[in-house]
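Let's do one together. I've listed all components of the complex below, 900 residues spread over three lines.
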Amino acid sequence: MTAPLPAKLRPRLPMTWLGIVPFIIFALLFLILPTMNIVVGAFQNPAGEMTLANVKQLFQGAIPAYYLISIKISLASSSIGCLIGFAVAASVTLGGLPKWIRGPLLTFSGVASNFAGVPLAFAFLATLGRLGLVTMLLKSWFGINIYGLGFNLLSFWGLTLTYLFFQIPLMILIITPALDGLKREWKEAASILGATGPQYWRMVALPILFPSLLGTFALLFANAFGAVATAYALTGSSMSIVPIVLFAQIRGDVLQDPHLGYALAFGMIVVTGIANGVYVWLRTRSERWMQ
Amino acid sequence: MAFLKIAHLEKFFGPMQVVKDFNLEVEQGEFVSLLGPSGCGKTTVLRMVAGFEAPTSGVISIEDQDVVRLKPNQRNIGMVFQAYALFPNLTVAQNVAFGLRVKGVPRSEIKSRVTEMLDLIGLPDLANRYPFQLSGGQQQRVALARALAVRPQVLLLDEPLSALDAKIRVSLRNEIRLIQKKLGITTIFVTHDQEEALSMSDRVVVMHKGIADQVGTPFEIYNKPTTKFVATFVGTLNIIEAEVTDPAAGQVRIGATTATLGRPLPKGKITLAARPEMVSLGTVPGRATLLKGRVIDVDFLGSVIRLRADIGGSVLAFDTFNNPNIVPPAVGDEVEMALNAADLLLIDG
Amino acid sequence: MNRIWSWLALSLGLVYFFLPLIATVEFSLKMRRGEYSFDAYRKVLEDPRFQETFSYSVVMALFTIAFGVLLVVPTAYWVRLKLPRLRPAVEFVTLLPLVIPAIVVVFGYIRLYNTSSWLPLTGSATGTNLLLMFGYAMLSLPYMYRAVDTGLRTIDVATLTEAAQSLGAGWITILARVILPNVLIAVLSGAFLTFAIVIGEFTMAALLNRPAFGPYLQLMGANRAYEPAALAVIAFAVTWACMGLIQLITRFSKHTKAAR
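Okay, and this is what the predicted structure of the assembly comes out as:
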């Protein structure tokens, strides 16, 4: 047995790194490598050779339309979700509503933003489906037949309305702390300097909130874009949005070429990656101000 | 007619009355401080002048125009906040320019005004910095420049120094006072720091429980407090127990000494108060009453020495200048102290 | 004026929130013609498939939570204590599951861990269950890590560690007896959130072909009329219970702290 080395001579760095090795292994095995596998697969043909053919196929046939409808639904549900969520959060934090509303509202939002997936589809079928409560009430009370007017839950607007159920509360959850970060003195300083309410919002509040707003928007976008369960339970395979097509493809019942599946998945990563790259970039900017 | 006039101002928050019958007239170019402990209503008065709170009743007028019904952005008032309140998304220059921009002042004029203001506060090189890149003192000076850029009629300062370090606080308060005099702008300054209030102001309003206890020059407030609250809140005070021997002639006995206050006093035991400066070591012309006591504490503070002496039941604290040629008294020494009995303050109860 | 708009915005939000719930509850009670009844619920609860899949998902959730805690607490602690410079990088990785759609990751699992691969997890039921649990842990990573990291921020990790070390405690003792009890509330919050996520998860379970609650729900939705509404109400109740418990323990912990 030799005496332990003095602290200075002991190789410290490797020991310190050891502490997060389990995390690194987990992240590699179950997050990064699987994703990399898909990305690499998107650029390979069945024989394992490098090719751009799969990615080229993303721009052919019906596939651009899948992406377009997916992006449209995600954009619509995230922008409307942002607007309504912002309005609700702003009215609770700044609108002079009683203070006790805030706690329950945030709890509601926590529940609703997590109430996604298959049950959400059921809830909206019961609400706005052909026999849904709202559909029936509109018919019997006002004589409005929304299905007669062209509405369909299994459509762009139907899916958007459904996604809003978790998009709005998610926006409320994320933006409320940001609104709390607006100091009362800023508003007061602006008004005593002669600014009107709209001027304050345009020149001070919105620029300060801008990174959080756009960041949340990006998050909501990715949230809607990657959602499979709700759409699948609502529409089966009848609605061709990218996640559904990919889901069917993985199950092996649509596309013939497995490597096109890689390309589809790769396209999804690119789209949400762009959205979230913007988010991360803007978030660091907003934190630099907020200190 | 006073430039800024506040009359019978009252404010309730629910059932709580925070400002009671507050009256104040401020002359043009005057620097008036509202001094008081937290919760005394001083900030509420200031916020009502600014327009952030609506008075329950009362009048606030600037140049004879009643402003109570005007919104803050219609009042032409400048304000500096305790927590700086600079807009974090705007640079120093943009912050200073803010008030001019919302007024629609032409760009070239804004530019020259901003330069002028940054020169005034001595930060001409920081125009393009963001607030988070500035020290607290710099931020507060920018806030002052921002408030002054729009040439307000009245400047309101809400504890602008209390978030700063002690050293910067002293230098900035001198600077604020200098700028205020230079521009001749009517100013109301809210603080809980008596040193700030006394050193900066033309007049001080001491507030207590929503009431203006006393309004006067710093000299009057400090030396001639009219209420017990003012006497105890401002400055240090020695409490002296005394017994009235002749109520009509105002004669009392303090320890073994008899002193004449020269005004009628109630019978029995009373409590008197004296500022440390009212007491001097040894005999001094103009201070006829001599008290004897034993030194119980000597605090060497550099230029002055603070002594505390037991005068038979009461303890008297007082200062004497440090004279390198004279050895100061030591603990246990018997000393003689002189004061002018007529200066003694009577504290009721 | 301002306040009227505020009430309006809030009401709009509340209508959006409650209308689907009311509709679902109403629909779930309509199974018997002409009157309200709990028939749909009875049918669902009596269905052995419901019992199987629900308990499968509950067990999966519990395992996921246990694994998540074991993974996240030491990592977050270690990063705060010894590797603060790596914090942004680790945080970035924990946020990735919000960026990469779950369907893409599970697609990767299927390709990477198939029967002919170096780690054939999908070859056996146990292996697939394990893989699914890792997937769930990945899904809940952003929430779990943030909850724990927030909890650690409120305590002085370095001082607590040094105090424990000076009393002769080893790393495991420090983690289990000093750090974990101090961030227990945060860990529980993360755990309930994980539970809510796992219990209804569809995509991963469906693509890995496991008999979980989510795929069962989807199957019922495709084949039945009233039962899905009852199931949605049950799922909502579970979500609600998880969030309610988070609120409850947070409030409870505030009270005990105030009492100290």
